Amino acid sequence: MSGANRIPGAGRLTPAKTARFTFDGRPYTALEGDTVASALLANGVHLMGRSFKYHRPRGVVSAGPEEPNALIDVQRDAARRQPNVRATVQEVFDGVTIASQNRYPSLSFDVGSINNLLSPFFAAGFYYKTFMWPKKAWKHLYEPQIRAAAGLGVSPDQADPDHYAGRYAHCDVLVAGAGVAGLSAALAAAKTGASVILCDEQPEVGGALHFDTSVMIDGKPGFDWAQSVAAELAAMENVTVLTRTTAFGYYEHNFVGLVERVTDHLAKPDRRLPRERLWQVRAKQVVIATGAIERHMVFSNNDRPGILLASAARTYLNHFGVAVGRNVGVYTANDSAYEAAFDLKRAGVSIAAIVDCRQQPGAAVLAEASRLGIEVLTGHSVIDTAGKLRVSSMTVARNGGGSSRTMRIDALITSSGWTPSVHLFSQSRGKVAYDAESQRFLPGTYVQECISVGACNGTNGLQATIDEAIAAGRDRALKGGFTGGDTPAISGTNAFEWTGGMAGAAEGAGPDTTVKAFIDFQNDVCAKDIRLAVREGMHSIEHIKRFTTNGMATDQGKLSNIHGLAIAAEALGREIPKVGLTTFRAPYTPVTFGTLINHSRGDLFDPARKTPMHAFEEAKGAIFEDVGNWKRAWYYPRAGEDMHKAVDRECVTVRQSAGIFDASTLGKIEVVGPDAAKFLNLLYTNGWDTLKPGRCRYGIMLREDGFIYDDGVVGRMAEDRFHVTTTTGGAARVMHHMEDYLQTEFPHLDVWLTSATEQWAVIAVQGPKAREIIAPLVEGIDLSNEAFPHMSVAEGKICGVPTRLFRMSFTGELGFEVNVPADYGQAVMEAIWARAEPMGACMYGTETMHVLRAEKGYIIVGQDTDGTVTPDDASLGWAIGKKKPDFVGIRGLKRSDLVAEGRKQLVGLLTKDPKEVLEEGAQIVANPNEPVPMTMLGHVTSSYWSENCGRSIAMALVAGGKARLGQTLYVPMADRTIAVEVSEMVFFDKEGGRIHG
Amino acid sequence: MLLIRCPYCEEDRSELEFRSVGEAHIVRPDNIAEISDEAFAEYFFLRDNPKGLIYERWRHIHGCGRFFNAVRHTVSDKFVMTYKAGEPKPDLPAATPVAQPLAQEGAAK
Amino acid sequence: MADPVIAQRRPVLAGAHPSLYGGSAVAHVTPAKAATRLSLRAKPDAVAALSAALGVDLPTRPKRSASSKGRHALWLGPDEWLVIDEAETDLMAALAGVGVLHSATDISHRNTAVLVSGPGAAAAINSACPLDLTDGVFPVGAAARTVLGKIEMVLYRTAAEDYRVECWRSFAPYAFGILVEGAEDAAL
Predict the structure, then answer these.
(1) Looking at this predicted complex, what is its ipTM?
(2) Between C27 and which of A836, C48, C120, C163 could a Cys-Cys bridge form, CB atoms 3.0 to 4.6 Å apart?
(3) What mean pLDDT, rounded, does chain B reach?
(4) Which domain holds residue B75?
């Protein structure tokens, strides 16, 4: 038995297909197709959660995504657990574990409900006013306490084991929503041959046809018609039908995000399936057919379990075969609730009374109520309810006062009318317009290529909706140039046209300031809170919203926004449109982060760029560091070595024999064309006309403001061909910077730029034995000092493959950089290593590279410079071509601040204690006894232990640094002050003879 | 995500392929080495930040690689037009209303 | 003097795990064979001479390509082509004697390629690529530089259900991985 409240013969589920689940540890049986909400209701469970602030017992209110109360924790296995799921959309599958939230120790007895008794102290704005003092207590006392007591579910504590998919899609017409309107529009568009995507958030199409069983379309019950149209559409090649798929966001230029829930309803999903799939759809046209959401009545104690929306009760009955009670009260301001009462009555449920706050409901529904023997109290209101964990009675009084009467009930269904779902339209930046007659916000001015149809457009009547949708679907396809096919003819009938509706508080909501007449169930916002906000001086709906938190819960006010607005308007004495409507933001319903990032997890989170020699370096024991996306060999520890020992050894080995280093990540740009030198003259401070083919030169690139932007060695391969290198991190932006100038400032130059970073593997061989190591492997290049001095480049062969061989050095030693086509990199490195190893050479990584260059005072752009350093500041003034009429940065260098005295300049620092290694980033002062805030002269940019120098070395940017040579300065640290002496930047081989060895 | 028409590819392409590179029609002075501090500040530092139409540069960096110019409304993000680098600045009324070019009146009932 | 060593090529995807190969029943994902490649840059007046030297007509319209005997020229920009020779002919040598103004840079090793084939190939690519790959917009022979997830690629549709994804060498494992995931999802 799948629940005592299941009505035999009612609903569309199959009684034989059951699924078992537990709720707070108790086992229950559901039917396949049940939501958690319908299955619990079938078993007589209305109490499904506790409210956020007052911890009031709450039951399910709706049967759809607008649900504010029934938030549950859904657990499949140890790692697959998700909090804050709406019980009204979670489908039951066999074996699922469901738990309620925000209660302790149990849902029916919750100590937090003391807040309900203390509620006079928890008025709107309470937190803002109360927890102001002392200021420190907020972080350590108030916030943790409030967070523990309030709040929703508990976050999962394990990594998400599921995977998620993503798909970009393009279509001529996207139809959001597959109720009567969406299906009609999709069919009309599809028949023209246009490509159509139709999506709907529910497991089956049909929308309101789930509950409205009075509808007949083309001779079939409405729901059956919907399924047959969906099948017809799905069979068409130009149509994609996506169910369980929510259009959650409408962005610029008809870009719409859809989330497709693939496995959350399956008992044993194929693990290859993604849990969810993100569709990023670019649609030429969008048809919005998102329907409308019923609103509840606002009256005293309208939040007890068992009080729910009339349409929800109808859905539970007509789709799930579940009666929400045995003796049901109805409270309404709208005809639609009558039909719920009729359906319940026909199913054998007794209706205590229909209480209608209007004097004159629709004549047709009154007549039918009379025929069915249902008592209707017009001009009456429900002014209170009773029942602790489930509603047990309603108190009814004639409007305007008089005696009241209490009726026993076990459920109360309400409706104050329907709010068109203009969320997507509003997200598209369309402007809503207020229709005073129907008290609704409807789509007004469109700014994107879209159209709203059906209930979300305020269209009343079944046939009017169908006709409007067909016309819109076809029209949108025609806009894309599709003219084929027939216009579908669809005709439908339904039992009643609905009239009525109200927004705001009903008679039973006050003006009493203690009455709890809820408008926002999830955030416990009552009508009185809105009035209080107005009394406190809030006039804008945006302020009222934030003061009361109305509409700020996870349901984003789908039920409450219009009520809050109407109450505010009344309190302010202004018309609703004058008070304004808060903005609808994406997402329409919550979207999992996993879905938004989809493929970008694990190895695919970000590309891990590995050089061609990565495997070789790994085999040699390299520890790698991240440099941008690159993995670079950092150091090569041998047995028993920590990083410092390894780096010390590598540093000494390079200077004593040789070291091998992977420099492949340096950016490389091929600059080709007759005007190549002219172009480089403009982009670098240096002059390039005098550089002969076969030679290379260190170049500095500035921004127009005169600050160093990048640097690197440039080799001239031919008159019209340069091999430019950049820093590893600068490769992409330097290319962009150069292209910018070439295309937009110097387009007259005949020169082209090509990124060659990854064409070449680069093996640096550095040290006194470098020549001896590579010489036997090289063909066609004379490596002697005379033929191939420092800063030379030549093309030839190494290990039988082409090479661009540079004689250059970033270590101050005799050095070569062997460039070979990337796929040969590893083989060439292996061959070089085979010769180098027996000579006592070592592999070295980026850390040793950093130390060795610092020993020579070579800067690293981005470490020793920070975007405010000029070539002069870095003692690189020699690299500025003094006779050049123009280069990028020439004017910037003349700015008064850039030529002023006292600029921060790069200098060396030697600690008085040679064993002391400074911290990079540490501040430098002249007077360590100056009270805080001290006058800071600059900071340490590079600092290392230099085994070759037998002491620590550092570089620093210091105000007026070059004039301070020999001065003692201080580096204040948390626990001590370190004395340093300002020095030259070259710490090793000051004469520089080794590089020419 | 924006959809941007590349004047070189002659096609609307996803914003993912593009990079925004600031205000358009700012020409680097030929005699830049000689200009005044004020002229340099005007050229390098000072930029308009209008509410309304803006002339700006984009690069189809992950497409054809070309820099081009665009006229965009800073409130609606609508592109009025895009055109190739080097083409003259189009003369458009500065206050083209946000919603007008593609707007249509919905059936407000 | 050491014995002469002749270095052997080591393609970036050669080391990929064998289980990665294949993709799914609807979209096969495989590394392409080695090829020679040029980044070719020139103005319109040089197109005819360069086309003659290469034996393939450089396309001058956006998104177009031209092919002849395993040699492909892809329009990437108004003055830029990617030339691919599957026979590994020395393309730099082919242009060495051409007297017209141009820039040719050998990028045979900079790029690597992944082939995606099958009825689900477009869906696999669209798992991470925002281009519209429908027949009317991206027909056989279309080529464009675009993005694939977080990297740049050149996409070339070589047949109704065959695509060639060209990317930089170090991005190839990422491209391969994301295409395999896309191919798997396209089959579900």
Answers:
(1) 0.97
(2) C120
(3) 87
(4) 3-26+38-84
